[in-house]
């Protein structure tokens, strides 16, 4: 998950993955994210009650900013994507621009979450750090074993099948031209697993070195942790080049697939995108008079759902920091 900070993320794919994983609405998925994120972090480090409370309080303090600043923007972005689908103008240039916009959202979330993560990491005990180190070793070994068993033909088939399944879930059955575009994309995809393993070792070592001075030199510790938050920092030129090529090819493939949409696919896809946009808009805290009144009366019905959205996004950054 470490490298997801630097990759371009399509909101459609993010929401789609939530939907496919949970089989439910965006709201219901968000409604369980606090529990899921805490469970995920606890798989890496056994948090104390005080640490869990600290995370919850920090997330709650960011609620108003995220709920008002980001969720409406997510809804607007999805509406713009829907309009481009309808007009048939969702080309690779626009997809790249949308990706850049989403990356900007992610960078803002990284900035807002840095103090929380620094504070959490500085509170870890020696025993917790040892558990974290062991979890690193375990995950690295699992990756090494997967790399040793990788068959190029199987990888190609799995990559092709995953993308076809994801897109078909939104668009319906793919036509031959769309399937060919996905196959061509999968064949051109640069494998980054080896780079990921090398970077994981490097990133983990830097994190553990920083944790070693968390009490003796808090200022230096904080600066070292912030460097680890810089998306893509420490990547080799070859790794950076492979990621960039894969991103570019993915947008081109998506543009080709979108250019081959049938009327039925357009109807299905725009309906789903509109539904997700409405969900984000409903989850947002647009500061109208009704919301102000509900907040004053402590009857904000959207507060819990927006809280969970914030928990996902900020919690993701905490999870990324705890697990390279």
Characterization of this structure:
This protein is an all-alpha fold and 324 residues long. The chain has one domain (2-149, 192-322). The chain is built from 15 helices and no strands. It has helices at 11-22, 26-30, 33-44, 49-69, 71-87, 92-122, 126-148, 152-171, 176-188, 193-211, 218-228, 237-259, 263-283, 289-296, 303-322. α4 packs across α15 (303-322). It starts with 10 loop residues before the first helix and ends with a helix. Mean pLDDT is 76; it is low at 1-26, 28-34 and 287-324.
How would you summarize what this structure contains?
The chain is an all-alpha fold and 324 residues long. The chain is 79% helix and 0% strand.
């Amino acid at each position: 998950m470490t490298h997801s900070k630097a990759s371009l993320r399509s909101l459609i794919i993010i929401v789609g993955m939530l939907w496919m994983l949970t089989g439910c609405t965006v709201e219901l998925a968000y409604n369980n994210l606090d529990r899921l994120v805490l469970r995920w972090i606890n798989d890496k480090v056994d948090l104390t009650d005080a640490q869990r409370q600290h995370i919850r309080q920090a997330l709650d303090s960011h609620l108003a900013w995220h709920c008002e600043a980001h969720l409406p923007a997510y809804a607007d972005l999805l509406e713009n994507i829907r309009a481009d689908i309808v007009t048939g103008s969702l080309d690779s240039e626009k997809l790249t621009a949308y990706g850049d916009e989403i990356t900007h959202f992610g960078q803002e979330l990284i900035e807002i979450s840095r103090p929380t993560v620094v504070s959490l990491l500085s509170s870890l005990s020696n025993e917790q750090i040892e558990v974290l180190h062991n979890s690193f070793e375990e995950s690295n070994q699992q990756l090494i074993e997967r790399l040793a068993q990788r068959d190029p033909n199987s990888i190609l088939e799995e990559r092709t099948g995953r993308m076809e399944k994801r897109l078909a879930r939104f668009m319906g059955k793919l036509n031959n031209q769309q399937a060919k575009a996905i196959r061509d994309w999968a064949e051109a995809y640069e494998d980054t697993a080896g780079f990921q393993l090398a970077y994981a070792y490097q990133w983990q070592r830097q994190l553990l070195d920083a944790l070693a001075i968390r009490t003796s030199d808090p200022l230096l510790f904080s600066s070292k942790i912030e460097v680890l938050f810089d998306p893509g920092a420490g990547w080799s030129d070859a790794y950076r080049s492979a990621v960039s090529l894969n991103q570019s090819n993915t947008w081109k493939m998506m543009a080709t697939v979108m250019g081959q949409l049938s009327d039925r696919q357009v109807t299905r896809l725009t309906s789903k995108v509109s539904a997700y946009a409405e969900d984000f808009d409903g989850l947002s805290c647009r500061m109208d008079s009704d919301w102000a009144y509900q907040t004053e009366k402590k009857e904000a019905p959207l507060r819990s759902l927006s809280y969970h959205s914030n928990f996902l996004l900020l919690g993701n950054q905490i999870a990324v920091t705890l697990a390279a």
